[in-house]
UniProtKB/TrEMBL annotation, chains A, B:
Domain HTH hxlR-type: 12-110
Organism: Chitinophaga oryziterrae
InterPro entries reported in the protein's UniProt record: HTH_HxlR, WH-like_DNA-bd_sf, WH_DNA-bd_sf
Record's keyword terms, sorted: DNA-binding, Transcription, Transcription regulation
Pfam families: HxlR
Protein name as annotated: Transcriptional regulator
Gene3D superfamilies cross-referenced by the UniProt entry: Winged helix-like DNA-binding domain superfamily/Winged helix DNA-binding domain
GO function terms (MF aspect): DNA binding
Length: 118, 118
DNA sequence: AGCTATAGGGATAATTTTAGCCCTATGCTA
DNA sequence: TAGCATAGGGCTAAAATTATCCCTATAGCT
């Protein structure tokens, strides 16, 4: 995440938003958090196919871009809560439009010639 | 593109649209084609940082998902033209919303705490 | 003859992303 | 005491994506 060999050029808006939400689990995380699931352990249970590690990484990236906010409670066992910032909330309609289009695509077989889902 | 070790699960719409437009150059290609640039050589000139190979690969994927259509003219030297299908056109507003959000993000510095663009 | 341009695609290397381990610490409960 | 849950993060391996090279073929131009 720090020393890339090939620099990213976030030249256009498209590249920028892809950088922000393009991770494998990021849209899921944003969606989950927007629905009130705040704690890492909850998010992990909601995405059992992802490892804790990756979720943590992608949460950190989202936090870095100002999409979510993190509150650490100084208790034991540790407690952490994430929530969407206003910037993060402004992303919700975008994600919704994307998801809607994708859902339409999925529901409409015959449109996708070589869909080898596996 | 054929034998992946880890199967993709295109379970939700979000995963589906990411699979379709998630490639590094795909949004650019769709955008370019929507603006009337049809031939591979044109697209290549418009995206000089991408290699011919990658553009060709991503065009093939877009074609496979029914986003663009390819017409091969049986002439020499070879001539090929791509165009958006109606499905591809239905994607334009989605891409536009995404690009708009990203552009807003770029234009609004201070929103992004740890943006290490490099 | 040697150069250009055109488009396709094989083979492999480089790079980035994701997965899968490990270990830290503490308080609770069986 | 042993096991569980909680959250963070180092380290390495696996997998996926992109980049970079190679070659095919033909027509036109100098």
């Amino acid at each position: 995440m720090s020393d890339r060999k090939i620099p990213k050029d976030l030249d256009c808006g498209m590249a920028m938003i892809m950088e922000i939400i393009g991770g494998k689990w990021k849209p899921c995380l944003i969606h989950n958090i927007s629905r009130g699931y705040k704690r890492p352990s909850e998010l992990q249970r909601l995405n059992p196919k992802a490892t804790r590690r990756v979720l943590y990484q992608q949460l950190t990236e989202l936090e870095g871009y100002g999409i979510i906010e993190k509150v650490i409670f100084p208790v034991l066992p540790p407690k952490v809560e994430y929530s969407l910032t206003s910037l993060g909330m402004s992303l919700l309609p975008v994600i919704r439009v994307m998801d809607d289009w994708g859902t339409q695509y999925l529901e409409n077989p015959g449109q996708h010639p070589t869909l080898k889902t596996a």
